[in-house]
Amino acid sequence: MNLPPEDRMAELRQLFFESANELVQKLNDEAMRLEKSPDDPETARSLRRTVHTLKGDAAACGFRELSELAHEFEDVLTLDNPATTALVPEIALRAADVFAALLEAYRKGSKLPGIQPLRTEIARLAHGSSSDTEKKPRKKSAAKAVRWSEYEQLAIRQAAATGRRVHHVVVDVDPQCGMPIAGRQMIQLALTDLGELLALYPVEGSPEPVTRIEAALASEKPAEQIRAKCSIPTIALNVRVTPLRTQSLSAVAPSSAIDPSKNEATAAAPADIAIDAPAKAAPVAGEAPAVPAGPDNLLRVDAERIDSVLNLVGEMILAKSMLQQALLEFGQRFPKDALRGKFADAMAFQSRVLNDLQHSVMKIRMVPVEQLFRRFPRIVRDVSLRCGKEVELVVRGGQTDLDKSILDAIAEPLTHLVRNAIGHGIEPADERIRAGKRARGTLRLGAYHQGNQVVIEVSDDGRGIDAAKVRQRAVAQGLLQAEQASELSESDTLELILQPGFSTAEEVTELSGRGVGLDVVQSVLGRLKGTIQIETLPGRGTTFRLRLPLTLAIIRALMFRVEQRLYALPLNVVAEIARTVEEDIHQVEHYDVLQLRNDVLPLLRLGSTPPRGPETARCKVFVLVISSGERKFGLVVDGLEGEDELVIKALDDQSITTDLVSGASILGDGRVVLILNMIALTERFTRGRADANGPRMTGLLSSLPPAASRAANEMLRARGLAGGHA
Amino acid sequence: MRKFVRVLVVDDSALMRKLIPGMIGEDSSIDVVGTAVDGNFALKKIEDLAPDVVTLDLEMPGLNGIDTLKEIMRHWRVPVIVVSSHSTAGASITLKALALGAFDFVAKPQDVSARMPEIAAELIKKIHAAAQSKGVQPQFLPGDTKNRHPDKLHPVAPTHIIAMGVSTGGPNALQYVFSKLPAEFSGSILVVQHMPDGFTDLFARRLDDCCPIRVKEAQSGDLLVAGRALIAPGNRHMKVKRLPLGNVAILTDDGPVNGHRPSVDVLFHSVAAEFGSQAMAVLMTGMGEDGAFGMGEIQAAGGYTVAQSQETCVVFGMPKVAIERGFVMKVADLQDLPGILQERCAPDRERADRADIRRSTSAGSN
């Protein structure tokens, strides 16, 4: 590893956060398992080990608060106190939350969350333990009272034995005192004047702060005089002088001057209680079979590095397109040249390898959706507990692979859907029993592959969504007019609940409603070029079905022209392509439709509507039939350019002000293509249909500021890629 | 071609499995051949990869560290360096691991951003020492015996001050020696064992529990009495001082000497200065050269100096340097050390006689 230290630290930090988050998740799992079977010693051990590892990792990276907190918790777990075992799962869950919050704060460099409440909880765990109740007061007194060293004890005894008076002088140092160390010096001088100073604490040069000075002084001076001498203004806040009785030493050193007897040695040392603990804590040899350990040859790689490889693969694909373009031109110019065949073979070989390479790299980015699903037992537990409902979580398809960045992005929407399902979908037990269902609701979380997509489903067996109520609500909330509402199809109606500001619950609950609706789901899916479909059966339950691309970086896209500009859509949303002429497009109410076989297909125009007239009537257009969720509509475009694999380059928000474009790519010949955002298009379509005065159903892309396309071009050119003629 | 030291890193923390190889990989002659997440994997990888040295975390799922260590000692006897956590429990289990034959231990890395080079250097040094060591000899591993000593220690002034310096391999060697000294041993022992803060106290208690003599982690002001060994606490130097009412150990926070705190040289130097011919220095197993210089000072001051033999050292480093410099009056096997200590500390008249004889005979006989 020859990285410069700072790079290595950054890498280590990254790794720390990853594995720490995993450990916190593991802590959650183990705490819940322990909640279910509190007597399982292996789970308890495993939980303790998790805390232990977290402690060590945090300490290695210098995250002291986390490390110390984990340490405290581990210590308490080590006590293995039967009286408090029942409290462990609950506190472990809370600890997991606090650890997660600390991690988040460390990562962002933000203010650390308060940890005192958890500290108190942990202390309470320890409290039930007998060894600890003994330990506490002792620890305190040890901190307070100075323990004279063996030599000092000897000196005190000898002084007393020769008939001298020995005083115990305690000076509380004024907290305002600016120079406590100099203050100590002055007290020492004063005491030396008064008699023989047998001992003085803190000792000179001690690193501990001087807040209190204690001395053993052999002196014939009366206590009052000593007190007065030591009461130096601005240094001494309070001075106590008491006779130091040698009997009081007997507890420390019985019978003889130096007899650090066995009993004393162990009883007085504060750290002794833990000596026996590890024996108990250390797993017994030959017990229960090992917890399945992960494959050991796993390699952790920063996601950014994989991204950069994928990015390069993307550039290679561009290069391939460019070569292919060149080959095409070459073939046209020298159709009979033997070299052409050689080129073509080499190209074919290269593109096959490139294809494999691309898939291999994409596979690296794939992680099982399990990584996300793992969080849900805890969420379901907490939410159902707070809603007072009984909910069973059934998870399927955890092994389904998904691009890591997509996985990260859907975490929040999925959480939202799950909370929503428990809060609103699943009925309270009594209501369920009345409806003839099991008292305990079931929430299913599933994932599977379908074609080039991943489908994630959240379904409950609750009351379902009442479309009529949704309509009412939408009208009441001013989202649409009553007459429009009545025209909406079932699936269109259901999608209203994804609109910003919509809420079906009678009251906004703390957990699921939070004042915002499910619009977060919609907007995230838009970003991911995914779709959402809602299925509901009143009284039987609701299923939210999210369809997501396998990866964000490369899509198979259909490219088309609208008003001389090049655009693309993910191929999988295009159900079919129809050719037609302008005169076959009819107007129904305020939107265009096309008769497609037996269906009437509503249309959305990407370009502006041409003026009606004989000269445009025979004008050929293409209609892309889009199937998004339950909805079908047509996109009118001017011409098709074919399909290709596009490497998506994100555009920064500044250069693109419309949500209609989600990214850009570049073709082999250097032309720039803008990739359209399916969700935004669908949303325009829904809104447009619902409201005659709503957004225009036509000329969507005409209104696209030229800046967007220019910015995309600039961006790509900066990479030395774009040709001049985009 | 240079021979690589092949290391297997065993730790259940993913972070440590990255961090530790990263740190020791800095050394071009160390090759981390693999990592393992728990004991079962570790045993398999030892079989497959035949590493020269294993670093072992003691807290692991599945087959835990102690059981793993037992297996390693039973079948392969690969030197194991324990990576120990900072807690009383961690210290205790670490000492147990040492008693089972672990070569040495390092504290789990803490705050690596600030202390990376230092932590790495220590681990690298120990790995090299482990690779060259012939390992811990089973006959010197302590048994389970509990040796009870009388509860009360009678404060008798010692006949001699014995300063001992020891590092890698020390815990077992010291336990071996102390367990063979009688409760009424007339010397007062001071030990610098290279060991971090947090371990020495527990270590002293363990020795106290199983040896006839008393053993205690030193505190400033502790009296030097017969039949007791004081162990310098981790991260502090120990010196001695003659005071009117008795002789005491003093702890200081001066900077590390020879890279160590406590340092053997610091102790030896102060013992030489205060006790001269009443002093005896013993250098035992351990790497480096801490103590060699101080041993010369004790010799020069008229004290007696003994080094542990190469055959019985886990690492023949510190004694070797002292021997090479001519500061050692007697080289002894570990099993002979208790006898030598008792002889030297025998009541005055006898001792003087024997000492004269020995000085004339043994000085040149090494």
How would you describe what is shown here?
The complex is a heterodimer of chains A (726) and B (366). Chain A is an alpha+beta fold. Chain A has five domains: 12-128, Up-down Bundle (Four Helix Bundle (Hemerythrin (Met), subunit A)); 144-268, Histidine kinase CheA-like, P2 response regulator-binding domain (Alpha-Beta Plaits); 303-364; 369-549, Histidine kinase-like ATPase, C-terminal domain (Heat Shock Protein 90), CATH 3.30.565.10; 554-718, SH3 type barrels (Roll), CATH 2.30.30.40. In chain A, 46% of the residues lie in helices and 21% in strands. In chain A, the strands form five sheets. A six-stranded mixed beta sheet of chain A has the order 14-18-19-17-16-15, covered by helices on one side. In chain A, strand 18 (620-628) and strand 19 (631-637) form a beta hairpin. In chain A, helix 1 packs antiparallel against helix 4, helix 3 (64-79) packs antiparallel against helix 4 (88-108) and helix 17 runs antiparallel to helix 22. Chain B is 38% helix and 21% strand. With 366 residues, chain B is α/β, with parallel strands linked by helices. At the A-B interface, helix 1, helix 2, helix 3, helix 7 and helix 11 of A face helix 1, helix 2, helix 3, helix 4 and helix 5 of B.
Could you provide a short overview of the structure?
The complex is a heterodimer of chains A (726) and B (366). With 726 residues, chain A is an alpha+beta fold.
